[in-house]
Prior knowledge:
It is a single chain. The chain contains eight helices and five strands, in the order H-E-H-H-E-E-H-H-H-H-E-E-H. It folds into two domains: about 1-85, Orthogonal Bundle (Arc Repressor Mutant, subunit A); about 110-174. The longest helix is centred in the last third of the chain and has 29 residues, at about 145-174. It is mostly helical. Helix content is about 60%, strand content about 10%. The strands form two sheets. Strands 1-3-2 form a three-stranded antiparallel β-sheet.
Amino acid sequence: MLELSILGFLCEEPLHGYEVKARILGLNGHIRPISDGALYPAITRLVKAGLVEQRTEPGSGAAPRRVLSLTAAGRAALQDRLRVPKDVDITDGQRFFTLLAFLRHLPDRAEQAAVLRRRQTFLNTPASFFYRDGEPVRAEEAPDLFRQGMLRVARATSTEEKRWLAEAIAALED
């Protein structure tokens, strides 16, 4: 998801490394913080792979700054990652939100809709945080106030996401 985020933000405009980091932090919040020890090696991998290019420009102070931009190969790689996301990118809510943040960069509306349909299928599969005898536990069946709360909030979130997905897919297929 880190490389997807880097490619996605650079698809919008060239950025300095610290600007990329700030945007990723904004997208992920406190849920998944990013360290320089993860970000800059990822940028280096993308540069070596020819997906990102960097140029140096004078800094506002004494140190020059590296400006990162997406190459044509980087744009193609981003679209490939968006077109065929991994299963975990569909099933994990935060990873799916990251995918959503950049899905507009996939130019084919039918391919965008296909990604949303995969999430819709996942959400329509009965699931729970807790199971009894192999069956999902409903909020009303949870043994305590806290688990009931978890399940109620998850159900409400899932219900609203399903509604949005249906609307978005219909709009894309118009």
